Structures are given as C-alpha cells and as structure tokens.
C-alpha cells in the first residue's frame, strides 16, 4: 500500500469542528484498508477522538489475541 504525502491547503477545515487546521495542532488520517483514500484533517487529537467516539469507529476493530 503506498500513499503520497500532501500538505493541506492553508485554509483547510477540520472534518469535525470546522476550524482551520493550521490554527491548531493538525492531524491527518487516511483509511488505508480501502486504497488509502483521500486524507481527512482534524485540527487536533481532541476533535479526532470525538469524531471516533461519535461515529462508533472502534466497535469491532480491536485486536484479538489468543495464546494458541
């Protein structure tokens, strides 16, 4: 799986709260289970965490460990 690195536009908005990402501590996320689609930008980890919680994105995605 390969991706390209791109810097977002200076006025890029947070996918969660709509703030400009560069006014804060931006985070870029890609879904690389399906061709590494377009990046999604969040202005900080709090917005990313809230987005994950509100969309229940961790359900069914935890690692399973078995000693066998």
Could you describe the 3D structure shown?
- This protein is low in regular secondary structure and 68 residues long.
- The protein has a domain at 21-55.
- It is 15% helix and 9% strand.
- It has 1 helix and 2 strands; from the N terminus they run ββα.
- The chain has one helix at residues 45-54; strands spanning 27-29, 40-42.
- It has a two-stranded antiparallel sheet.
- It is globular, with a radius of gyration of 14 Å.
- The mean pLDDT is 82.
Task: Looking at this protein, list some descriptive labels.
15% helix, little secondary structure, 1 helix, two-stranded antiparallel sheet, 68 residues
Give the biggest beta sheet.
2 strands, antiparallel
Strand order of the biggest β-sheet: 1-2
Mean pLDDT metric: 82
Give me the Rg, rounded: 14 Å
The tally of beta strands, per DSSP, is: 2
Percent helix range: 10-25%
Concise structural overview:
By secondary structure, the protein is low in regular secondary structure. It has one helix spanning 45-54, and strands spanning 27-29, 40-42.
Describe the secondary-structure layout.
Blueprint: E1 27-29, E2 40-42, H1 45-54
Antiparallel strand pairs: 1-2
């Amino acid at each position: 799986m390969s991706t390209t690195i791109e810097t977002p536009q200076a006025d890029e908005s947070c996918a969660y709260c709509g703030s400009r990402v560069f006014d804060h501590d931006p985070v870029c996320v890609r879904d690389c289970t399906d061709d590494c689609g377009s990046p999604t930008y969040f202005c900080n980890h709090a917005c990313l965490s809230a987005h994950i919680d509100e969309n229940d994105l961790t359900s069914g995605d935890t690692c399973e460990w078995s000693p066998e």
